[in-house]
Design brief:
With 405 residues, the protein is an alpha/beta fold. It has helices at residues 2-20, 53-59, 75-87, 95-101, 132-145, 189-204, 229-237, 248-252, 254-261, 297-306, 382-400; strands spanning 27-30, 64-66, 89-90, 111-112, 125-130, 149-151, 156-157, 171-177, 271-277, 280-282, 289-291, 348-350, 362-368. It has 11 helices and 13 strands. The strands form 4 sheets. A 7-stranded parallel beta sheet has the order 2-1-5-8-9-13-12, with helices on both faces. The protein has a two-stranded antiparallel sheet with strand order 3-4.
Length: 405
């Protein structure tokens, strides 16, 4: 009888999905730290490398947009850029934010034609973010749900289209892939990831060109005429912005992520998914993790480093050996969903194929045995590339099956 009851529940679940689902909401792909857009890097894609995962999804019938946002900027500024690129117009980081961090509120170089001008509560979207892109997606949902104050003395809201009012039901789902929701113990993340970007630039064959930009015009920083790639990178790494809390390095740290998590709580109207990755395993008689066979050369040394490194929380406590498993950039235990912050953890459950999904909690999958870059089509082989395409394609179908607002 128990088996019959389970069978009936499954049938009813699929009937329910058929009746209320099959939305056609667009998917927006949000790249991570040090990422780039479709028109940069000479055709070498962030999503797919020499292949084009965005086009793959389009060929499968999905509407897909990719954004090109600040590769090293804070999640606040990256989220504002995602919004502006979709809706079009002049980037506006907000008066209060600009004054707090002494940046240019509306950089004149950042004006965009709309990718999806119809975007609103009637035409919501699915956000898929890799690495820091998952944090950025959560920040965008937060900014959409708030009326941000621009003047603390008068309580007057910001005047920007995004920050000056609330936008309910604009996002149907958020999917994070290899995202450091609770930060990463990879200290000096900029120095550690620069070799990966140099590798991608070399593979793309655009060394010496102006394809890749750090998009830090809000800080008054831009690439000089005829400036070498090495000189550009050196100036970026030495910029004073890194000493502030308004840069990616802070948001990606354990303490910075903990601060974000106190603010970016799960929305009860949004479906959440997390895809976790790992390229390490624990050896017998040792708590440390070591890279598995097939880990890419660039990821191998970082994965071994993370496999024995502790980090620190805002209250002074340290991480433990549960943080040693990693994908070469991010600790695997940080990927399932936010568990730190003053308000405690978001609800997180293991995804089961036949579950009746509900919004407001994280459905976590994995860990999948690929490294941080394999999962989006870089530095892998036929097996990892096939796995990455399958996972993204399958997730897109899963999102399409979600009930409409």
């Amino acid at each position: 009888m128990k088996n019959w009851a389970k069978f009936i529940v499954i049938i009813l679940h699929y009937v329910f999905c058929f009746l209320v689902a099959q939305n056609t909401y667009p998917i927006v792909l949000v790249h991570g730290f040090m990422g780039w857009g479709e028109d940069e890097m000479g055709g070498y894609r962030y999503w797919g490398g020499r292949q084009d995962y965005a086009q793959m999804l389009r060929d499968e019938g999905h509407t897909v947009f990719t954004v090109s946002i600040g590769p090293v900027s804070s999640n606040w500024e990256r989220a504002v850029e995602v919004y502006t690129q979709l809706k079009g117009g002049q980037v506006d980081y907000g008066k209060a934010h600009a004054e707090q961090f002494n940046i240019i509120q509306k950089p004149e170089e950042k004006v965009y034609n709309a990718l999806y001008p119809e975007w609103d509560e009637v035409h919501p979207i699915h956000l898929i973010g890799h690495s820091m892109g998952g944090q950025t997606a959560r920040m965008l949902q937060y900014l959409l749900s708030q009326e941000v104050v621009g003047n603390s003395e008068t309580g007057e809201p910001e005047f920007s289209p995004l920050l000056g009012k609330t936008h309910t039901n604009w996002v149907r789902s958020i999917t994070s892939i290899s995202t450091p929701h609770n930060g990463t113990t990879l200290t000096d993340v900029v120095t550690k990831i620069i070799p990966f970007v140099q590798y991608f630039v070399g593979v793309a064959g655009v060394v010496g060109t102006r394809f890749y930009e750090f998009d830090l015009q809000q800080w008054g920083f831009s690439r000089s005429e005829d400036e070498s790639w090495a000189g550009y990178v050196k100036r970026m790494r030495n910029h004073h912005a890194w000493k502030s809390k308004n840069m990616s390095s802070w948001d990606l740290s354990i303490v910075g992520a903990q601060e974000l998590n106190g603010m970016l709580q799960a929305d009860m109207d949004v479906f959440y998914f997390s895809i976790c990755t790992s390229t390490t395993e624990k050896k017998i008689n040792s708590p440390n993790h070591f890279p598995i066979e097939g880990t890419s050369i660039l990821a191998r040394s970082r994965s071994k480093l993370l496999g024995s490194r502790v980090g620190y929380w805002a209250d002074g406590t340290q991480t433990d050996s549960t943080w040693f498993e990693n994908d070469g950039i991010v600790n695997t235990c940080s990927m399932a969903g936010p568990t730190t912050g003053v308000n405690g953890a978001d609800p997180i459950v293991l995804y089961e194929e036949n579950d009746l999904l509900i919004p407001g909690q994280w459905y976590t999958m994995g860990p999948i045995q690929v490294d941080h870059w394999n999962i989006v089509g870089h530095m892998g082989n036929d097996q990892t590339d096939g796995m990455a395409k399958y996972i993204l394609s399958n997730q897109a179908m899963r999102l399409q099956a979600l009930p409409m607002f």
